[in-house]
Amino acid sequence: MYSHTRIIPRQLLTGLIIILFFSPVTLAQNFAKYRIEFADKNRNPYSIEKPEEFLSQRAIQRRIRQNIAITESDLPVNPHYTDSLKSLGLRIINRSKWFNTVLIETGDTILLDTICKITFIDSVTLVKPSVQKKSLRNKFIPESCADLVKQTTQNDQLTMLNGHILHEYGYKGEGMQIAVIDAGFTDADILPAFDSLWTNNQILGQRDFVDGDNWVLDAHSHGMTILSILGGNLPNELTGSAPEADYWLLRSEDTGSEHRIEEENWVSAAEFVDSAGVDVINTSLGYSTFDDTLQSYTYKEMDGRTTRISKGAVLAASKGILVVVSAGNEGNKLWKYITAPADADSILAVGAVDGYGVLAPFSSVGPSYDGRIKPDIAAQGVGTVAQGLGSLIGCNGTSCSAPVISGLAACLWQANYQLSNVEIIEMIKQSSSQYQNPDTLIGYGLPNFANALSQIGADLPYSSIRIKGIYPNPFLDRISLLFIQIAPKDIFIELYDIQGKMIKQKRYVNLPGGEFELTIDNLGGLSQGIYIIKVLSGEYCYVKKLVK
Q1: Phi/psi at 198 (nearest 5 deg)?
Q2: Residues 322 and 279: beta-carbon distance below 8 Å
Q3: For residue range 83-111, what is the model confidence (pLDDT) as tens digits?
Q4: Radius of gyration of the chain from Cα atoms?
Q5: Mind giving me the DSSP string for 125-143?
Q6: Would you say residue 25 has pLDDT above 80?
Q7: Residue 47 in contact with residue 74, Cβ under 8 Å?
């Protein structure tokens, strides 16, 4: 790990808008970590009648907008209970108000026996042992970040889903907040792909739930790569899926080992951003097996109701947050199935395809153990253009497909912010290529965000059809028409001479939402002069004068 010697950018100091209910600590690596579950939240100084004391105004408004009640689960853990634990000499690492728990570290087993007898404590569970084997595996294989393939273009991952059309209509994530919960964001403060995020104050803050501090820019590069797919901006090289959104950077993943404590860290991070009022969580992480095999899960436990992180993802969704997670990279391994929290309900689990829409062999498959469609959808996760440590790379893994969806979902939601997270998820699914016939490989298929935009009820700045160009003018043998549309329609192209006589007509039936180049050819025999081209679709009519 790099030393914490960099000057913290000033932007970070302006974005911490909520009170934290835990203190940063330096963790002693030789102590075991335990989860303590409290029996209740009795005599809590906080009250659901005064949510402004523990929720930001943005979080309160999200609940109001989506008709979500503020409940006891929103109350912080009782500080009287935590103070009692501190007085015993225990160090508190993280807290969870949703599960009414704290994480502590201690090497005193006699003290643990005493804790178990305290009346306000229900249970004590080991989540990370004191003596550990160093994990020899690369957690993010096959997410090898190869040199960028020359044939790949910056917009392939967006145009595949017609996500660029959201950007064409002005929806680039402005005003939306996305939390990236990952393993670290090494060099995200110095790489040029992120210059616009810092310059425009789009980085709202950062928090490390592994080390317990407010610095995540040197722990690992995985989160930095994911952030680049979301918010990166290098003209003509890299365009993020939501380049104008605001971002929270959070670390829950310890890449040096794999233990259930990381699920607990993730829940605390999710609660943090819930309190901040975040709209979308992107988490390119997944859990199934651990360094301690006794902690490992079975496929039977991928039911959305068993693992800590999956239950936490469901709770985050119940607070109105759109949770997007990677399906997992186990498709060509013995496990092969989705990993937690991809099995959770009310979230989007994203599988991976290549640039041609073909399933990536490593992409984890479904269904969830209880038979629900998983993954939910898919996006490009092979050769996804991203920022590496130094240069652009082609990123492989469902980690790379999830942020494509997270950003575009935020842009879609921006178009009609009054909708709920559940409604946005359903619109994305309905727009997808296999909605009528989902499978266990890519679920409902590849979303078409142009079609989703047409269903969202937004006050669009343009017509549902937008002509981008008609060329060449003057023309010789053919005329090409470049346009975008956001709903399936029949398109008529008609060519008239100056006297109003129709020379040519062409009909394209039920074109889906997207960007198209249509042509009228075999025009070489026409005499020189002035012609009129007319484009018709429903009530839409576009007329332009051309010269031959």
Answers
A1: -75, -45
A2: yes
A3: 999 999 899 999 999 999 999 999 888 88
A4: 26
A5: EEEE-SS-PPP-S-TTTT-
A6: no
A7: no
Cβ atoms of 177 and 272 within 8 Å: the answer is: no
Token pair, residue 525, equals 């025999």
22-128 maps to which CATH number? 3.30.70
Segment among 26-35, 142-151, 360-369, 443-452 with least mean pLDDT: 142-151
Nearest C-alpha neighbor of 343 from the set 326, 329, 360: 326
Give 63's contacts (C-beta < 8 A, 6+ positions apart).
69, 70, 319, 320
Q: Give the number of other CB atoms < 10 A from CB of residue 440.
A: 16
In terms of phi and psi (left: phi > 0; alpha: psi -120 to 50; beta: otherwise), the region of 265 is: alpha
User: Could you tell me which of 126, 132, 131, 135 has the C-alpha nearest to residue 33?
Assistant: 126
Q: Euclidean distance between the first and final Cα of the chain, in Å?
A: 67
User: Which letter, b or e, does each residue of 338-360 get, where b requires 16 or more Cβ atoms within 10 Å of its Cβ?
Assistant: bbbbbbbbbbbbbbbbbbeeebb
Distance CA(50)–CA(126), nearest Å, equals: 35
Strands (E), 417-512: 465-471, 479-485, 489-497, 502-511
Domain ranges of the chain: 22-128, 465-547
Rounded to 10°, the helix 421-430/398-415 angle is 110
**φ, ψ of residue 234 in degrees (nearest 5):** -125, 105
Distance CA 522, CA 508 (A): 17
User: What fold does the segment set 465-547 form as a domain?
Assistant: Immunoglobulin-like (2.60.40)
